[in-house]
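Batch 3, record 17
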Amino acid sequence: MQWTTLFKKEMVESWRNKKLIWLPLVMILLAIMDPISNYYMPQIIEAVGGLPDGATFELPDFTPAEVVMMSLSQFSTLGVLIVVLVSMGTIAGERKSGISELVLVKPVSYGNYITAKWAALLLLVWISFFLGMLASWYYINILYGDLSFGSFSRIIFFYGLWLMFVVTLSIFFNSMIKTSGLVAFFTIATIMLMRVVTEVFNHILEWSPNNLSNYILEMLLTESIPSNLIGTAIITIIITATLLIVSINTFKSKELAN
Amino acid sequence: MQELFESINWALITPLLVIQAILLLVALIDWAKEEETSGPKWMWFFIIVFVNIIGPVLYFIFGKRRD
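Prediction for the assembled complex:
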């Protein structure tokens, strides 16, 4: 009961500050930008000119799988950045302004407080990502060729796990640090560090969450679910759960110390 | 340029433009209702209107005062 109240409060808040409207819109724009601009690239080059006479410029024909990966790489860069910026103040800001103290003065459990925030944020991000990919899927089917519903839903599921990891990481730093700018910095820095470490030790860290999108590409090309993808998904879920438990505990100890 | 405009299938592009317009509009309505923004209010107006897509996003993330 208490959890539902907190969760509803979060959803009302993201409706009031329009996150629930603008985040989906931006995600849709991110997702469809590349499919459309690549489709019109020959015309754009022609109109802009710049190519000397006689020079021919062969543009590759993109397969649906490649175009999906373009949309996903937008999510992996700008999308993740926006998600981190949106979530940076969710707890840190409340602690700074004292709202969290007002909430936690009442018999609200720390676990409920954190998980309600986490779930509301995750729902917001997942809705936005889903709508973005839906729009991208629509354009891919019109412009590039068929992408089956099965592939589409698997992309949603597995890439959704990566976004869940990003959200959880942000909540984790939120529970430790009071300055929202620093929360964003540490979240981004951790993701980048993980990418570098994953690339350097790729033979050991085959199931690092950063590999999710590589395996998604593999899944699209082979049209079957590679076993590495399942392994990575399980690891991602385990890390996410651990981070969540750790954040509840750090938040508890930080608040009690105050 | 003329050819470019003729060769474009507007049925494909219109949704893109409509979504950008909605984003701009939502940001402007929110901006108009906000009594105080972080930083001068008129500055955000120009950012929202003249910086395509990124302007409204910047406003929503950094322009609104947290209190």
